[in-house]
Amino acid sequence: MSKVLSKEDVIQLYQRHERQWGIINGAEMLTWDSFPWPMFKRPTSPEDITTVAIGAYVLSPHYPGDKVGKDRIKEHIRRWHPDRFETKLLPKVVEGDQERVKEAAGVVARGLNELLTRSNSVFG
């Protein structure tokens, strides 16, 4: 059973993830564990990543800043979009993790796009 995160835990997780993005962009070599997967519970495989879990993370009331949910989703789509991800970040991933990272990033991008579609139909 996983521990329920407190508000402070959630805020610290967001801060840690922002730091990780800063490190990733300047890193020469990356692994599965280098990535701040947009979920509260760290996935161990692409199968662990769900749209529901991504939505809980991106749309949390404790998310930093004052952006509305739709803008948060768009911000994450920019980070995880396959065109950017597969040209800028995937080449830095060690060979043994590349396939898994590529698959998981694709799952994240599709989940975010699904959330954006839902937010467009809700908020029009």
Commentary on this structure:
The protein has 124 residues and is mainly α. It has one domain (7-123). Helix content is 62%, strand content 0%. The protein contains 5 helices and no strands. It has helices spanning 7-26, 51-58, 69-80, 82-89, 95-123. Helix 3 runs antiparallel to helix 5. It is globular, with a radius of gyration of 14 Å. The protein starts with 6 loop residues before the first helix and ends with a helix. The mean pLDDT is 93.
Brief account:
The chain is an all-alpha fold and 124 residues long.
Question: What is the H/E order?
Answer: HHHHH
End-to-end span in angstroms?
38 Å
Largest sheet: none
Overall geometric form: globular
Name the beta content range. under 5%
Spans of at least 5 consecutive residues whose pLDDT stays below 50 are none
**Helical proportion, percent range:** 55-70%
Structural class per helix/strand content? mainly alpha
Query: How many strands in all?
Result: 0
- Overall pLDDT: 93
Quaternary organisation of the protein chains = single chain
How many independent structural domains? 1
Figure out the total of helices: 5
